[in-house]
């Protein structure tokens, strides 16, 4: 049984015919650029500071936010700066990643003036979460040996974490309050 001469198979590319015309190539290139730009916008890959700023803006939700928090942790692991390491530490709290948190905390805890992030970057380090802003503020107060203010900030972080249903930051806040209360009694 033969194939009719005017069939769709013969119409696609007969012997010796070009099927990739300049118009088709331009169309496919346009589609590729549009899809690429869409993917770039949907799945951005900024540097550490860019990722922190995107999180702090509060525009990321759900899977996008989790992906960007993971990016911060991964980029902070290779960073040497204290501010970058704090970004990683705070991102581990938001992700409730206990193992990664222990890794970052080992170099940053207990907080001292030398182990605090740069003042100009602190507003971004809350990563869009008020509880993380209070964790950072409590750490700054603790480094300055202002234990009452630190304890108050940890209390606020605990309440915010409880209301948001985040167990790990709440556990950290409760442990910090106990530690600070014992330190104040020991003075």
Task: Report the uncertain regions.
Answer: none
**What is the number of helices?**
9
Query: What fraction, in percent, of the residue positions are helical?
Result: 55-70%
**End-to-end Cα distance:** 100 Å
Largest sheet: none
How does the helix and strand content classify structurally? mainly alpha
Number of strands: 0
Tell me the series of helices and strands, N- to C-terminal. HHHHHHHHH
* Rg, nearest Å: 26 Å
Q: Beta-strand percentage? A: under 5%
Mean pLDDT score: 88
Shape: elongated
Characterize the structure shown.
With 187 residues, the chain is an all-alpha fold. 68% of the residues lie in helices and 0% in strands. α4 (62-77) packs antiparallel against α5, α5 (82-95) runs antiparallel to α6 (98-108) and α8 (147-164) runs antiparallel to α9.
Q: Keywords for this structure?
A:
187 residues, mainly alpha, 68% helix, 0% strand
Q: How does the SSE layout of this entry go?
A:
Blueprint: H1 8-12, H2 22-42, H3 48-57, H4 62-77, H5 82-95, H6 98-108, H7 130-143, H8 147-164, H9 167-185
Quick structural gist:
This protein is mostly helical. It is built from nine helices and no strands. The model has no long low-confidence stretch (mean pLDDT 88).
